[in-house]
Predict the structure.
Amino acid sequence: MNPVYYLYLAALLFTIGAAGVLIRRNAIVVFMCIELMLNACNLAFVTFSRMHGNLDGQIIAFFTMVVAAAEVVVGLAIIVSIFRTRHTASVDDASLMKL
Amino acid sequence: MENLIALLVAAPLVGAALLLCGGKRLDRTGHLIGTLFSVASFALGVVLFADMLGKGAGDRALHQQLFTWIPVGGFRADIAFQLDQLSMTFVLLITGVGSLIHIYSIGYMEHDERRRRFFGYLNLFLAAMLLLVLADNYLLLYAGWEGVGLASYLLIGFWQHKPSAATAAKKAFLVNRVGDMGLSIAIMLMFTTFGTFAFGPVFAATDRAGQGTLTALGLLLLLGACGKSAQVPLQSWLGDAMEGPTPVSALIHAATMVTAGVYLITRSGAIFNAAPTAQLAVVVVGAVTLLFGAIVGCAKDDIKKALAGSTMSQIGYMILAAGLGPIGYAFAIMHLVTHGFFKAGLFLGAGSVMHGMNDEVDMRRYGGLRKYMPVTFITFGLGYLAIIGFPGLSGFFSKDKIIEAAFARGGTEGWILGGAALLGAAITAFYMTRVMLMTFFGEKRWDPAEVHPHESPKVMTLPMIVLAFGSVFAGGLFSINEAFVKWLEPVTSFAHGHSPVSATTVTAATMVVLVIGVGIAWGMYGRKPVPALAPRGSLLTRAARRDLLQDDFNHVVFVRGGQELTGTLVQLDRSVVDGAVNGTAAAMGGLSGLLRQLQTGFVRSYAVQMLGGAAVLVAATLLMRGV
């Protein structure tokens, strides 16, 4: 099977993720879309690793997973905390950091 | 002997320090201490003079190096004194006349509760003036120069409770600052040109400097001289300086202060000799001032201000003579010395008159005082005869020589200058006769019930008598065998002027204008009674009463002009400088306001921006690769 298809898939997933981040208002969904983009990147890395015949891409994928896991922990904690205080998880409502 | 020079300056300086720091416990003896130190300085001067006379003309100059004042790299300023014939003349005049004025002040200031301080200032004045004439370099001279300015400020404003006196002191100080600026720039220019400002090296190096530099130096020195010597255009302070106690006026006009400018020009003769343009400026200033002062002197009813006008005029003669170069230097100094005698005598006489007339200064309220103040009348009268140049008296010898030298400048200039000097002599005769007639002759124009004119105490008349002797004999003594000229020749050099008219003709012409001047004055003030209230007078008289509009001129040109200039500069500062700064700030503020709009607080719009940015980066990378 041609590895290029995996790249197409990765691009597709990334686009879905990016569109989700830009369009959706629910923080959880936005968060999930970010994960989707990260994993799309992972897929692309692994595919390139396969195509070039070395392990660099695979190693980077592991790094990404670790960072994503850490990010999930921190991000979810923030979202839960915002939800508790404001009773909403809409990202547009949390727009106080402006002049 | 040379180790004694510093003591000349030190004596009055110690006196001033004692009196000014000594406090109240010296109140009762202060005047004696001050006089003692002044007389001590004079005695020392006489000793040095006697020693100097014992030597040959060539090696009379003494030099004393005290210490190095400011040693910085190539810059070296010394506290060093030079006592040559020129300085010696000034030392004797300053300390001699100064001491007489000290003695006179004992009587004149008897009832002033700040007498101790007055004597302290007088001593300070003497010390500063001695420093000025004894310095062997321009920087030390400048220190004395400023000291004289300070002391004159303190003394003119001595009765500082009178607003007019306080203003006059400030005016004198400020006008002098203008001149001082000229001198200080001259010293800086001297240092950059010659690398030194000691007299000897500078004068020896004048031929190395360019004509332009020398002319600039000469003009700057002239500006300095104009300030101290009250010459046009910096003459306006002199009349107001009459606000000070009368002995101060005598001191300023006869021995110290106004003579400093003449000294400066004569001392810097080497520079002026090499810069004909500057010399021309000097004679023009001198000629203009001698007429200016004389005209002002004619219109004043205040006896001291009339004498002040006369001082201005006489100093004008000296500056004129000094500007003539080697044919005039010696006569400038000779007139300075004789003038020192008779002008001090006249001022002390005026002070004596005021003393007896309840401090009245308006001559229209005098009249017929010769019977009440015989000693004052005789001494004042001798001073009067001397200043108008009555044959045989001091002023005759010195002024006549200056007029002769003015003609000897040659060409049209010589005729103009000589004519101006002759005209000045006629006006001098007129206004001095006027002063004399209005004060001592004619009817009484004072109220016998209120005023009781009386002769002053001996302590005041004695100095006047001594000065009267000087007024009578000094000129004649100096002229025997041209003694004075020969005495000064090693310092100032001397050349006989070749006048287009003979000396006898000049003398005869002087006599004729003298008689005309006296005659007109007699016709106006002697033959008919003097009105007690000043008549309106002609346009010229009214202008002369206002000092020929000098203050109005200064007010319109410099005060108003200065205000206009500063106003314009402030406006310029506000609109251009501040405008640029504030404009930049406002532009930045506006731009920030616009950029701030991007900060919406919506996470998703930030995300779009990031995505857009990333897309641009990727596109740019690809494009660069493609190229």
About this structure: The mean pLDDT of chain A is 91.
